[in-house]
Amino acid sequence: MRHGESIQLQNILRELPTRHADCCVTVLWGVRAVKNPTSRLLPAIAASVVCGLTVACSHPPAGQVQPDPPKAADQYLIGAGDMLQVFVWRNPELSATVPVRPDGNISTPLVDSMIAVGKTPIQLARDMEAVLAEYVRSPKVNIIVTQAVSNLSQVAAVGQVGHPSRFHTGRE
Questions:
Q1: What value does the mean pLDDT take over residues 99-128?
Q2: Quick one: 10 and 52 in the same domain?
């Protein structure tokens, strides 16, 4: 590789975003291995390398951490008093908006009573799909918490405070 070609490659590297620089160095070592590249081919090879980096380099920029997927402890737990919208895909007659009763159960068409308290919306949806599978072929259920008013969504201010009380954490 000629000195002028090496400087061209270094200039291309400087223009790249920092997150692609380490990938580019690895790929450009392969460009160096090409015997006697002409000065006309070098910019084309470098450009194809640069264009391919946006697809080939998938790791996050230095110092940036990928967020972990939500854990079960991070997900909302349904509680008594919450309002739930139960949506059954392609079966609007089975869809309903229902409250979670004080005993922790909900009732919808074809599901007389099902425990909802302490479950995530996804868990409740899968449980409802299992019950509805007796009546409907391949049911798909979504549960949307429309109002979070249970004790599980409240914060209590107690102790040496002016006015001990409970506050809802969700929007109403």
A1: 97
A2: yes
Q: Phi and psi (nearest 5°) for 99? A: -85, 155
What is the Cα–Cα distance from 38 to 43, expressed in whole angstroms? 9
3-state secondary structure of 98: strand
Do the beta carbons of residue 37 and residue 31 sit within 8 Å? Answer: yes
Q: How far apart are CA 9 and CA 21, in angstroms?
A: 12
What pTM was computed for the model? 0.53
Question: What's the pLDDT band for 19 if we cut at 50, 70, 90?
Answer: very low
Please tell me which residue, 124 or 2, carries the higher pLDDT value. 124
What integer is the mean pLDDT of 132-153?
92
pLDDT above 70 (res 47):
no
Domain count, the chain: 2
Q: CB neighbours of 162 closer than 8 A, spacing ≥ 6? A: none
- Indicate whether 27 and 99 sit together in one domain: no
**β-sheet bridge partners, residue 97:** 85
Question: How many CB atoms within 10 Å of residue 75?
Answer: 12
Q: Which domain holds residue 26?
A: 3-56
Residues 12, 17, 21, 23: is their CA dihedral positive or negative?
A: negative
- Pair (149, 78) in one structural domain: yes
